[in-house]
Each structure stands twice: as structure tokens, then as C-alpha cells.
Amino acid sequence: MKDTRIDDNSTDKLFFVADEQCKKCNISTEMTQRRQSKIPRRLNDAVVLENVGHITDINSNSDFRQDIFYCILDCMIAELERRFGDQ
Question: Is the pLDDT of residue 43 over 90?
Fold first, then answer.
């Protein structure tokens, strides 16, 4: 699994297979424009320092690799090391 994390071709293959499957099933891979969220009225007089719940758009293979693939792979590696690291 650690080798998979280093190898960029693994995400290229996965992204290509997912893209081809979407095309076969007539599923659009284009991201639509998100609705601009507004601050609730009760917070009009307040100072809002952070935006909670921001979602990153995944539009390319590199976005997929950085925002999804590495996060999931890191969690899997950490869990396997936690469970089986001492053996």
C-alpha cells in the first residue's frame, strides 16, 4: 500500500477506469456550478472568521489524488499499522 501511495500511475489508472465507467453509464463527469451560500440572517451583525463545510471541487486527476485518494490510503495504512504493526 505504501508503494501505491508513491506511484502516481495507480491513481491515473483508477481515475481512467472511473471516467470510462461514467461514460458507459451516461453519467456526466463535469462539475456543475455550486450555489453561493449566504450567511444566516441571525449572523448579520456578527463577525464570521471561518467558513465551515467548504467542499473542494474535484475536476482533475491531481485533485482526485490529493483530496480523496491520499486521504483514504493514509487512513487504511494507519489502521493496518495500528492493528498489525507489532506482529
Answer: no
Q: How many domains does the chain have?
A: 1
Nearest to 56 by CA among 41, 65, 67: 67
3-state secondary structure of 77: helix
Q: Which structural domain, as residue segments, surrounds residue 73? A: 1-29+59-87
- DSSP annotation of 59 reads -
Handedness of CA 38, 43, 48, 54 (dihedral sign): negative
Which residues neighbour 73 within 8 Å (Cβ) at sequence distance 6 or greater? 1, 4, 5
The answer to whether 78 and 3 are in contact (CB under 8 A) is no
Match 487512513 to its residue by C-alpha cell: 75
As given in the structure block, the three cell numbers for residue 27 are: 453519467
Q: pTM for this one?
A: 0.55
Report yes or no on 68 lying in a domain. Answer: yes
